[in-house]
């Protein structure tokens, strides 16, 4: 399990808003390694992991975006049925609440990678 920083910004929910952010990061030589976009009516919340958080923050702030940095965990799981269920059950047994989780796996890959933040329930 590796710790890293997640960058979160709020964007207008309209065509081109995400493209502008992605292009600015690419032009700043910042690679997006993971991304999650959750939409609402007028805005969307974009969470991302980049290869250089410091440079990513600068690029996003240059776009006049407010950036929230959150420490997160990168977790590798076997790409098999039930792996996520088993991990979530272990966390639940320990009274750990998952605040958010997103991830993916390439077809045929042996492992998936999840971005997660969790904390002990109060």
SSE map:
Blueprint: E1 2-12, H1 17-27, E2 32-39, E3 43-50, H2 53-62, E4 68-78, H3 83-93, E5 96-104, E6 111-120
Antiparallel strand pairs: 1-3, 1-4, 2-3, 4-6, 5-6
What ranges have pLDDT less than 50 throughout 5 or more consecutive residues? none
Strand order of the largest sheet: 2-3-1-4-6-5
Q: What best-fitting shape do the alpha-carbon axes yield?
A: globular
Helix tally equals 3
Total number of distinct structural domains: 2
What is the top-level CATH class of the largest domain?
Alpha Beta
Helix fraction, binned, reads 25-40%
**Beta-strand content estimate:** over 45%
Looking at CATH, which topology of the largest domain would you report? VC0802-like
Write down the oligomeric state: single chain
> By helix and strand content, what is the structural category?
alpha+beta
């Amino acid at each position: 399990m590796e710790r890293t920083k997640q960058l979160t910004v709020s964007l207008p929910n309209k065509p081109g808003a995400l493209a502008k952010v992605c292009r600015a990061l690419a032009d700043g030589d910042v690679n997006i390694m993971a991304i999650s976009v959750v939409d609402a009516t007028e805005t969307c919340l974009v969470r991302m992991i980049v290869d250089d958080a410091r440079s990513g923050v600068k690029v996003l702030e240059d776009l006049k975006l407010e950036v929230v940095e959150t420490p997160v965990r990168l977790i590798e799981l076997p790409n098999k049925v039930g792996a996520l269920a088993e991990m979530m059950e272990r966390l639940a047994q320990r009274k750990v609440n998952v605040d958010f989780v997103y991830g993916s796996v390439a077809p045929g890959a042996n492992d998936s990678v999840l971005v997660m933040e969790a904390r002990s329930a109060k």
